[in-house]
Queue: 2 jobs
Job 1
Amino acid sequence: MKLPEIRIRAPAKINLGLEVRERRRDGYHQLRTIYQAISLYDRLRLRRRPRGIVVRCRRLPRCGRDNLAWRAAALFVERTGAPGGLEIDLEKAIPVGGGLGGGSSDAAAVLLGAGRLFDIRVPLDELHRWAATLGSDVPFFLRAGAASGSGRGEEISPLPLFRRPVAVLIFDPGFAISTAEIYRTFRPHRLTTKEDKFTMLLSRWRSGTAAGLGRTLFNDLEETVFHRYPQLAEVKECFLRQGARGAQLSGTGACLFGLFGTRGEAARAARAVSAAFAGRCLAARFLPPRRRWGVVKR
Ligand code: C5P
């Protein structure tokens, strides 16, 4: 059935663990990560137009070819030979340059939404390949929920949901950090075989409590980012003093997150963090995979 328009939500993600290894020949870093989608969303409305791609977004200065939603739409139309173009209204709520995957999530939402709008079914593995050409995090957002990622982040294995309730608090310092720049200055540690932080985190994920999970969070890029932005290290300390079970930078930043046992604890910490630092706090929770909270709203 042909629909006049599609409305779709694009969630943010956090990286609960991020192990970054050496730079590969293609310029990307080999990594292992645990992605978790959270309930902080950009909102997109997709409509058909006779030809061409148009993206409108009040909060972004440029919405042309360098915008990932634009590129996802162009890719979809080109690869499927869809009859016509796309018009996208993008309402951003996910901080830009925050390490929360907003742009990648928008791109995945466009791929999914365009398929519905044109009633063109693309096999999921094909969609994954297209998504990976747009960015390392984009394949994760096709399903969202929780997943481990390897390769440059694009090889996805779904994880079961974390069993215990967790309240998430995001701190947005209000400035952006360039992912490419952080990776460029990052120097990998020599790996010690004894300390496999990723395996420990995975086992806590499968069996643990919010406190156990919090203790095993890690992000290999944190040192590089905190060296350049020492105020972010202070916010992390504040999160921990305020009772976070764990706190860290998401991806390459600039946003941090803290995990709390209850929403009340998170709200108390938000008041203390907001009083002490310039920036804003956003409350969220872990999201299940996309099929459980709706791919598309008509
Ligand atoms: O894949 P994506 O376009 O999101 O990556 C942005 C930049 O981050 C890349 O151009 C690269 O410099 C860096 N990156 C990396 N290793 C990864 C992922 C990203 O070096 N695994």
Job 2
Amino acid sequence: MSPEPEIEIAAEPHSLAERAVGHFTRMAEKNIRDKGSFTVALAGGATPREMYARLAAQPLGWEHVHVFWSDERCVPPEHPDSNFRMAYDVLLSHIGIPAGNIHRMTGEAGPVEGAARYETMLHGFFGDRLPCFDFVLLGLGSDGHTASLFPGSPAVLEDTHWVVGVTHTVPPSPLVDRITLTPLTLNAAKNIIFLVTGEEKAAAMHNVLKGPHRPDAFPAQRVTPKDGHTLWLVDSAAAKEITPIIGE
Ligand code: 6PG
């Protein structure tokens, strides 16, 4: 049974980003100290941008950090909609991380080929056991999606593949196909943080955390790591429809 998720509320997005950096660096430093490495799957979208930019100033042992993604849009890496491009612009191009530690999803290959390539790469890195990321960062869409697990998508119920391609033709934008880690892989993670800001996410947060169990409609409900810890790191605007457990 997955432990209850923890909720941590910051007053506004800037202090939220600072808290997220604190969680990241504490987890990274502990894993590097304990086992010499730290594997993290980054979220896409706009919310994590400030966190990534602040993270670039952290004196971490980046040579021990391996960066993956929880999802990617099927566009070239230099495209403005690329999740890799955003992380590269504000974080990866500013830190001394070896190129071999950056495990990009090849969105340009398309959803089917791109997903197959990423799954093969994960097998190469983690072996044939389910990938157990030290940390997975996720966002939340106003429709209750996370990563590229959208309402009504077969990917939400995927329980065989580690990575799948997603055909994406209806909002939310961008209306491009995707590659996404599946719930199977997400739920093997040791630590998951949902980073959520803004009043436009308040209803989705309520549906996911307090609503009926309907993962087809609210896919973020599928994220229930078996042995991992889940933290909802949110600002007060996103939390306005749920009871704050820990607040600023
Ligand atoms: C993506 C993301 C997606 C994102 C949410 C929230 O590729 O779009 O991974 O799951 O986290 O849609 O996006 P915002 O942070 O832009 O609101």
